[in-house]
Specification:
mainly alpha, 236 residues
Length: 236
Amino acid sequence: MPTLETTQVSGAIDTLPDFTSEQYKDAYSRINAIVIEGEKEAYNNYLSLGQLIPDKADELKKLAIMEMKHMKGFTACGKNLGVTADMVFAKEFFSPLHGNFQKAFKEEKLTTCFLIQAILIEAFAISAYHVYIRVADPFARKITENVVKDEYLHLNYGQEWLKANLASCKDELMKANKENLPLIKSMLDQVADDAGSLEMDKEELMEEFMIAYQDSLLEIGLDSREIARMALAALV
C-alpha cells in the first residue's frame, strides 16, 4: 500500500505515515495501548479523588465518565487500523505514576493526587494529542480532536483546586512535583522510538509538555522563580 502523501494537516505537515506498514502497526500497538490505559487510569483516579472530596464527588464522577468515553474512542482507533493494543506494556508503562497516585490516595494527600492526575497526566496527554493530531489517520484525528477539548476541562479543574488551596498546599506541591515530574521524562524516553515511527518527534513532545505544564503552574499562582525551580526536576 502506498504512503498517504497527499493529505494536508495543520502544523505544516505535508505527509502522513504509512498506516498499513508493519513498523507503524507495531509501534501503534504500544502507543494506542498507552492512551487507552492512560484514560482508564484517569477514570479510576477521578473516582478516587471523589472519595477524598465527597462534596465534589458528582463533579469528579462526570470527569471520570468523560475519560471512559475517551478510552472507548481510542480503542476504536486501534480496531480501525487492525491493531491489537499491547495492554501489558501499557500497564507497566504507567506503573510508577499509578503507584505514586495510589500511595498518595491512601495517605489522603489531595495535592499530590491532583498534581499527578490533573496537572502532569493531563498536560502529558494534551501535549501528546496535539502532536499526534497532525500525523494521525483521519478516523483517529477526529476522535483525538474531540478528546483534547475535554482534557482542557480536566486540566482546568485541577488548576482551580490547587489555586484555591495554594497557600496551604505549596510545600506538598513542590515535593510531589520533584518526585513525579522526572517520571514524565522517563516515560517519553521509553516511547521515543515508537513515537518516531508515528512521525511524532520526541523533542517536540517534551517541548509541548513543558509548555502546557508551566502554563498550568502559572495559572495555579506560582511565580516565575518557583516555576523554574519545579521545572528543573525534569532534568534530574
